[in-house]
Every structure is written in C-alpha cells, then in structure tokens.
Amino acid sequence: MRKVITRCVIASVLLLTSCSDHADKEKETEDAYNTQQIHKPDKKQQEQLEDHVATPNQDTTREELTSQSMPELPRAQLTNKVELEYIEYDRDVVSYQDLNKRPELEEWQTAEILEWYNRIVPETLEQAGQLELIPTVQMAIQLPRNKEVKVLYAITSPDKVYLQLRSSEIITYRTDAEDIKLLLETLILDGPYKPIEGIEYRVLTEEYLVNDDPDNPEISIFYREYRMYKDYRTGDTHSFSLERVENISEAKRAMKGFGDLKLPPNTIVSPKILKQWQAEGYYPVQEYSEESERGLTYDDLLERGK
Asked: Which DSSP state fits 297?
C-alpha cells in the first residue's frame, strides 16, 4: 500500500513539474512574441538591417565591388537610329502654329549624339534613383537586340543629362552635359525651323530702339534682328537711323511711308514680337506683304518649297 501511495506522489510531482515547465515555455514564447511586437524595426532600422546583411565580407576586394556597381552601357554604332520624341520649344521664338512640330534630327545631329553617347565612361555615371525631372528634350537611341536608351535633358537642370537604360527594369543615371549641351539647347531654340531647300526665310525675334550713342545724341537707331535660314542658320540684323525719338511707336510713325518697316520675303513673326506689338498698342499694317503675309507659318514655307 505504501508503495502505491509513494508511486502516486511521485507521479503527481512529475505531472506538476511537467505542467510547470510547459507553462514556463508558453510564457517565454508569449514574452518573445510581445517583445518582437514592441521592438518591431521601423523602415530606417529595416534598411540598416538589410544593408548590414548585404555588406560583403572582408575577403571581397574593392575591384569586385566596383565591377558589380558599374552599369552595363550598351555600345552604339553610327548606323543606329536616334528618334527625337519631344522638345519643349523656346516659345518666344517658335510660332504658335508651329509648336506641335517635332522635326527629325539631321544626320550630323544623330552622329553627334551617338558619338557623345559612346564617349561616356560607365564608371562616371551616377545612379539618379526616382527621377522627378520634366524633360525639355527627350530622345531614344535604338540599339541592337531591341535595346533602347532614353536621353533626357531639361533647361532647369542644364549641367546634367539623364540616361534611362531599359532592360528587365528601367534604371536612370545622370552624367555631365557639357559635351552635348550646345546641340540640345540649339534644338530647343530653333524648334522645328531648319533650312528648306530652295527657300530663304527669316524669323523676326528682336525689335528695339537705341538712343545712347554718345557720338550721335540727336540720332535714334531702330533695330530688327532675324534668324535667317538658307543653307544653314545665321543671324541677320537690319538697322534704320532717324532723328531722335523716345520710343519705338514714335520711330514707326516717323518711318511710315518709307517702306523700311516692310518685312523681307518669307518672314515668320515670332510670338515675342507679336506680344511686344500688342503691349505697345501697335497694329502692324506696314510690315506685311504678298511675299511675307500675316500669320505665315513653317508649314506654309514647306509647301512653297515643294
């Protein structure tokens, strides 16, 4: 009987011990879970943790790191196509009727862009991350095997050009704009205007009066500046001397009837000049003719050149 009682006591002790151990383990698990909930890492801590995990061991050489971080920049040939996708034209120069034109690049412009692209050293590229740039010029370099590189440029960020490399994902890099800036800004400035075979034409861009010639204090000089397109674009300035006047409106009244205000044949009047005439309260009647009618557009000139 004593043996039976002793066995029951021992069994009870073992059962109590087991239950206690099990309860302790459940409490430890619950405490650990609560601790994880309380100390859940925030986004910054998570990024640090990921950086720590991703940090290579000491055996990784610097050369291996550099080669891993360098972008693959597919090479181009001079036969590859460059497509001009978008230009935000200089709206002081480009006629409102011509704003929607997207001219094709000329051969020399395509060659210049491809040569510039091939001179880029991948090691000098900086990854741009999420790009919030609104491009003024956007073009695409079409490469073999359906590869494409977007070239993005904005006059608000004139020191950098951005490249978007497209493969399984789009990665944007920035590089120095010095070697290509002049070409890109010329595209913005000229807009759709370029030489038309067999036609000489102008765009009137500036009109002003000069009264500060110390050698001729009684003389005013009225200036008009044009961009002239023939075989290539050049500047062209016309000036007219007259007895001193105080403003352009007086100058035009004094010049009335002499034919000096008549625009040269095939002249497009820029938006800047149209706004200036409106601000001056000037209604142009002497400027236009059959050779250079009111509202002339680039499309009209293209038709004449056919």
From this structure: -
Q: Has residue 297 got a pLDDT over 80? A: yes
Q: Does 57 have pLDDT greater than 80?
A: no
Q: What are 231-269's pLDDT values in tens digits?
A: 888 899 999 999 999 899 899 888 887 778 899 999 999
To the nearest 10°, report the CA torsion of 276, 278, 283, 288. 50
Residues contacting residue 206 through CB under 8 Å, at least 6 positions apart: 223, 224, 225, 272, 273
Please give the helix or strand (H or E) that residue 126 lies within, else none: strand 126-127
Coil/strand/helix, residue 211? coil
- Structure token digits, residue 157: 């960020």
- Regarding pTM above 0.85, the answer is no
Higher pLDDT, 100 or 238: 238
Nearest to 230 by CA among 210, 202, 258: 202
Count of residues for the chain? 306
Give dist(CA 217, CA 211) in Å, integer.
7
Q: CA angle, corner 166, sides to 192 and 178, nearest 5?
A: 50
Q: Is the distance from CB of 236 to CB of 202 less than 8 angstroms?
A: yes
| Residues 170 and 160: beta-carbon distance below 8 Å | no
Q: To 10 degrees, what angle do helices 181-190 and 107-119 make?
A: 150
Q: Please measure the distance between the N-terminal and C-terminal CA atoms of the chain and give it in whole angstroms.
A: 125
The CA-CA-CA angle for residues 203, 86, 160, to 5°, reads 100
Using DSSP's 3-state secondary structure scheme, residue 51 falls into helix
CA nearest to 179, candidates 131, 120, 110: 120
As to burial, measured by CB atoms within 10 angstroms (0-12 exposed, 13-18 middle, 19+ buried), residue 225 is middle
